[in-house]
Predict the structure.
Amino acid sequence: MSGPIRQVTEAAQAFTFSRRAFALSAGQIGVGALLAGRMAWLSVAENERYKLLSESNRVNLTLIPPRRGWIVDRAGHAIANNRTDFRIDLIPERVEDAARVLADLARLLKLDPSEVERITKELERARGLQPVPVAENLDWDRYAAVVVRQPELPGVAPTQGYARNYPAGAAVAHLVGYVGTPSAEQYKESKDPLYLAPGFKLGKDGLEKALEPKLRGTPGARRVEVTARGRPVRDLDTRRDVPGQTVKLTIDAGLQEYAARRLGNESGSAVVIDARTGGILAMASMPAYDPNSFSDGISRLEWGMLSEDDHLPLTNKVLQGLYPPGSTFKPATAIAALRAGIDPERTVYCNGGYQLGNRFFRCLGRHGSVNLHRAIAKSCNTYFYTMGRDVGMDGVAAAARQLGLGAEYPLPFPSQRYGTIPDPAWKLRKYKESWRPADTLNASIGQGYILASPLQLAVQASRIASGRELMPRILADAPIVGPMLDVPQERMAMIRSGMDEVVNGAGTAVRSRLQLDGIRMGGKTGTAQVRRIAGGARGGLNVPWKYRDHGLFIGFAPVENPLYAVAVVIEHGMSGSGAAAPVARDLLTYLFDRPKAMETLEAFEKQWGGDLNARMAAKAEAYRLVRQAPIPIATPSPHPEATPPAAGGRE
Amino acid sequence: MRLGELIPAPIAQLPWHILFLILAIGGFGTVVLFSAAGGSFTPWAWSQGIRLLVFLGLAVVLSWVPMRFWEKLALPGYGITLAALVAVELLGAVKGGSQRWLDLGFIRLQPSEFMKLFMVLAAARFYAMLPGAEVRRFGGIWPAVGLIAMPAALVMLQPDLGTALMITGGGIVIMFLAGVPLRLFIGGALGLALFVPIAVNYILHDYQRNRVLIFMNPEADPLGTGYHISQSKIAIGSGGLFGKGFLQGTQSHLDYLPEGHTDFVFATMAEEWGLAGGVLLILAFMLLIRWGMNVAARSPARFGRLAAAGLATTIFFYVAINLLMVMGFAPVVGIPLPLVSFGGSAQMTVLICVGVLMSIDRASRPKPGFRRLI
């Protein structure tokens, strides 16, 4: 290579280099400027936004569920209150190793396998921040055991809060309902973040549900600095919750509990109404569930037991149970007759029944000549058949409606069934059939199409007792509504005196007269057929329980100046006088002479095998044993290999 | 010159301003790591500080190595490192899993780190040997392309997208400075524009593709891979002008910022020191790179010029890729911020680069004795 050429090339190369190095440097400085500019953009121009994001990272706002308002009885005794509760929840989004965390929790909290199974299932279905309850109502030791290990258990949220408490347990189940964790659907509907707060419960049934807005209160909030994994570092500030309002009921807590206990092992309901104000003093439906354990979330086993029970512990029979009122309807037919201007002294001759065309409608006996008073006392069908026919179905239905049957009342319950008070128009609408005179006869004695709930029967009793169109009330601050019935007071008194005779004279419920000095109960028994049995035979002890007749009773006391009205329905109790009237007697006795009533009850409970809680526990234990017992193995089927080969030589 | 008389010449001759600059950057990095550990020298700040001094000493030692040595070592060193990359790949295949390092018993070596250095030296050596007229011909291009492609492909197999990009970038910068025709670079850039979408879809690993796609739209996946970028931007953005104050960063201390002591250390710094700290740090790095480019400009030898500019650009790549990444301008590719991020590999590579740069710088200066005579 010759020198000069190389010289030129090298100079050219050096020139190229310095030119391109300059470009490179310029590029580097450009990138540097871009970086500084980008940083200035982020930290100055967008500073506000990122500061906010950083704060919302750092600060975790935890809602503190408000303490639920109490539900108290007329005297201020708690029907539903709150107790301190230690609980553990899992926040699905923050759980890292669900299996390990669950195993640790099961060990620390001594969870039984069915609980672990439930949590696993709920955890699989749950998403995001909706907490999955692990355990509630923990004792301090087990709670503390989890709290100290919280850093190793991501997603585990221990909280110390309040839980709903129903001191009377199952006795108030159907009255107040229960509370529970909001469902995913409820959250989606409301979008209220409170619904996600661990420990927050809302009313799921009964008054708890209907009075939810009043009882809920306003949540508090706690601002906590948390790490990315959700571990709290320090508290920043806290706003107290505002507890929900206390709701006062017209209920007498003592009577309510007494009624529930007195119903014993029967499937029945009892309602007591203050005959001066319409205030409901007790409304019990038994058997019932324990709202305390319902509010904690019940196990599948418990649910299975309740839903399989033929005594329907999950149904509020006071509002949801509909029964043919049977003879308890007769006072309504009597009032219809009085309203139609029929003379109460008019007599009807009972020769054992009523002939309608070629059908003979039976009475329970041959009562001879009966007037209104005697007809009620003897429960004479013939008399009421006659009255029904004379007044006509429209008149009977109008009287029944005025007594509160077939109506829905302005009460804060999620649902009431209003039953049926039939009339010709109704039948045409429903069955496209015209009303027949036989229908009137059946309706006049409370059979046929007529259906009423125990609450309606109690309202009927309260209206007969007071002579007023009393509206039932459950909230202590609800207005008292009670215009006079359009039947003169002295004629109402005739009906009451007929009912007095039922209990205290030669009537059907003489065994249930009050054992009190100077206080008499008036009433009317009823026995309603569950199914029509050929030949008019009654469903007594000789038929299976579910085909036996219902026993009903309506009553009031004292007869001269009624203070209280009562209705009792015992499903399949066979007769009103045998099953329902004694319960009504004891309920009224409780109101006048508490020790005496308690004595009666304690004697009964000794027979039944313990008080309500003891019997419910025994029942649950028995159910658990049956369900968990290994299913007896039927004759084992032989394995194919074990079968001896078929002997050869067969054709 | 009193100082020259008191201090031995070899010491006085050191480029002290650069050593101080590096100490300043590394020292600030140590302070940031101290904060990232929640105000503790362990586990990061202490060992990082010690390593900084050790590697800085190594750089000073390397600065006394004559430049000719580097020139001679360039191709053999490249060959050995390439062999080591193959060995890593084979080892990974035998063990059934990818790995990036060779375990020599006393130390774990990442050949890909050394390749960043030797890529530059080998390419510089190649163009220094090549007759000037050949540079613009095919014979001056394909060997360089081969030199780049082999290690880049091996590192991609590891898979380490960030390092592969840096190796490729280092080689291409040398080609550019050596005078390879511009139209090739323009054509290459166009080709890349076509190739990238294909690469994203077919060549990258799932997690790499994810990172690239998330980078395009980080908000689409705030809790997954986009989380890194979002949280990093929150940390930088919430710092404001002067930051939340030393030890006051919430994003880093409450663990919202992932990798706050390694790849995202700049975000940790920016949260506490704000725009002021960030601009100072960027400025310090630009000064270091500027110095490297000046060393290149001063060097009379072609190898020295190309190598110095390439090494300076390697440092630039580290800083630029990392900062673009933490500020949401580049996908998360796992390139640390040298001298600041916790970890020895990048620290060592950069300080070796500085050592070689100092050695090139020394070669371009007049002999000390001669200078004193003047």
Summary: Residues 72-204 of chain B form one domain. The longest strand of chain B covers residues 102-103.
